[in-house]
## 1
Amino acid sequence: MEKTISLYELSNDLLELMDIEDCEINEEVKSQIIEQIETMIEAKSENIIAVIKNYEATVNAIKEEEKRLATNRKVIENKVSRLKEYTKECLEKTGKKKVETKLGNISLRKKPVSVIIEDESLVPELYKTVKEVVTVDKNTIKDFLKKGMEIEGCRLSEEDYNLTIK
């Protein structure tokens, strides 16, 4: 079976070929090989684009299915909640604390004591806690750095690229 050459290998071959001195290889032969490698890189890139688009379509389909399933789950959870509330009300109305069946048992029990805050502004400061969140405003920092200002611990980065597939 024929071994396929990866995009990585093609890229390395192209770089190596471009570094070869003209005296080591005929310029016309070198040009033809470069053209062949570039054609192969283009074909590999096209295949990679197809695979990426296929994966992206699969991811989108999975996300849509997750949304549909989450909606269905929520509907069923609401049904369960309403059935439990309905059953609780019926048991309270009849004064029954427990019903035993072959499938399972239903019983009422007292809830633990809970605190209800009716007006938070009336609660003394002693019983309040302050939560502080600190975030760095990267957009403002970027604007200042672009204007030539220096900010300790920060720098602009133009070293990376984004891959765009259309």
Note: The mean pLDDT is 88.
## 2
Amino acid sequence: MRTRPQLHSRGSAAALFFCCAVAVWLSLSATALAGNPDTLPKIVREPARGIFLVAAKSLADPNFSRSVVLLTEHGLQGSVGLIINKATTVSVVSMLPELVGLEDADTKLRFGGPVQIRSVRLLVNATEDIPSAQRLLPGVYFVNSTITLHSLLADKVAAAARPINYYAGFAGWSPGQLHAEIARGDWHLIEADEATIFADEGASLWLDLMKTLEGRWVLMENSAPADTPL
């Protein structure tokens, strides 16, 4: 007696294999997204000097859309920061002609924010304290003085070991304004670090941080007890 081919059994096996493959792929994708907890950005609960504000995807303001801001001041009088991931094609020496011969002619300004766009502020990467400069976090100093800038550039050997980022304009918030924007969901707060500030990947920085933030959220969701609200 001839038996019919077990087409149904083969189809079931193929379906089972497909389901298992999808489950493995989803598991690996979640693990890759979550990443190593030690390398993910540390979420901050309150704004403070020396932290990053990462624009939420929903933030539509053209000045701040897809921006990463380093807070340089935060207090009762309001908040001040520098957008660190927006490049310009304007040279530093065209804005500060007194730096001709001191700064490289090809060094470009970055867009620091919409306030006082013709003013220039600096972030300096240094291992030693800089007189008259404000230390924001380890290795990062805020400079808002032409005299200090000239002294930094005068010593060519020392200047080569101290990368400087120049920013045209800055971002400012009146008292309570930043807290209101955070409560509305406009910003994500994370710890800042010198490597990110002085990296060359400014164009992709916002997207990179959003991806790692999503990894942090996946990790928090997967590690939280079932009855614990996030």
Note: The beta strands are 51-55, 68-75, 78-83, 87-91, 108-111, 115-125, 134-137, 140-143, 164-173, 187-191.
